[in-house]
Amino acid sequence: MGSIKPEVSQEVLPYLIAYKDGTIERLVGTQVTPPGSDPQTGVVSKDVVIVPETGVSVRLYRPIDAPKDKRLPLVVYFHGGAFCIATVGEPLYHNSLNILVANSNVIAVSVDFRNSPEFPLPAAYEDSWAALQWVASHATGGGSEVWLNENVDFDKVFLAGDSAGANISHHMAIRVGSTRIDGLKFRGILMIHPYFWAEKPIGSEVTDTVRKAMVDIWWRFVCPSDKGCDDPLINPFVDGSPSLSGLACDRVIICVAQKDILRDRGVLYYESLVKSGWGGKVEFLETEGEDHVFHLFNPSCDKAMDMIKKLASFINEAMGEAP
């Protein structure tokens, strides 16, 4: 006789099913690509455990032919997945980081934070903060990882992420603004299709009630909060949230996709940042005819490459170098 499946507690589609016995069945984001040399992009990668107590690790990327006489900017990347699926080894993310590093000529640290519900929020934020502290431990050249010691210019650090990872990059920049990390100079944030939300719908959320309800479920599942979708972690504009003027960098680029249910939140973030009194430069890029994180699923399409090249130019311009 076949085994009887446990009773379903909650379906968090399209990501996972939670059962009443506490087990979680992830429906997507479970594949893993090992690190190594990628001949197509000329990028090499490796995994490093940075917090043995929790098992939190990072995947490091650098150009295979990285110059020994020139230090490169560092991109600290936070992957998406609604805080409940995917890892740095997920093939879509591994491929995307290879492409970003190759086009930008940077070193990248992709953070493998712990996912909900096994590790409910704010675990992902604390793991990401620990990763920034680990990076900073290399700023004087005495860290545990040779790639960072020898190849990184710690005066040229960028935070980056897509979807939930873009949300994390916001919160890390806010936290750095109030709790300085010595040894790192943050130059900018690359936000790709940022995951912000709220109880009250705006824009296309008003009429797209099905997707509005779906995203509501995602957040309430990963964040045990009595504030629901108006928790400051997902809604940076509720009372008591830190002002965007406190972002600890002087450049931000926000990318949105026209068909994305999260689009209007990205637009709101852009408009709010412009009005916040923050003294930096903010750029905005909308990709027409595409949906959420389209670049992960079709990385070689013209629109995906246009976005990657725009992000590379953003990094290089912040460095005062030609794109």
Topology:
Layout: E1 8-12, E2 16-19, E3 24-26, E4 37-38, E5 43-51, E6 56-63, E7 72-78, H1 91-104, E8 107-112, H2 123-136, H3 146-151, E9 152-162, H4 164-178, E10 186-192, H5 209-222, E11 251-257, H6 263-275, E12 281-287, H7 294-297, H8 302-318
Parallel strand pairs: 7-8, 7-9, 9-10, 10-11, 11-12
Antiparallel strand pairs: 1-2, 2-3, 4-5, 5-6, 6-8
Helix pairs in contact: 1-8
How would you describe what is shown here?
- With 323 residues, the protein is an alpha/beta fold.
- Helix content is 30%, strand content 24%.
- It has 8 helices and 12 strands.
- A 9-stranded mixed sheet has the order 4-5-6-8-7-9-10-11-12, with helices on both faces.
- Helix 1 packs across helix 8.
- It is globular and about 60 Å long.
- The model has no long low-confidence stretch (mean pLDDT 96).
Describe this protein with a few key phrases.
alpha/beta; globular; three-stranded antiparallel sheet; nine-stranded mixed sheet; single chain; 323 residues
Compact description:
The protein contains 8 helices and 12 strands. It is of the alpha/beta class.
User: Class by helix and strand content?
Assistant: alpha/beta
Number of strands: 12
Distance N terminus to C terminus? Answer: 63 Å
Measured by DSSP, the beta-strand proportion falls in: 15-25%
Tertiary shape: globular
Give the uncertain stretches in residue-range form: none
Query: What is the string of SSEs from the N terminus onward?
Result: EEEEEEEHEHHEHEHEHEHH
Going across the major beta sheet, what is the strand order?
4-5-6-8-7-9-10-11-12
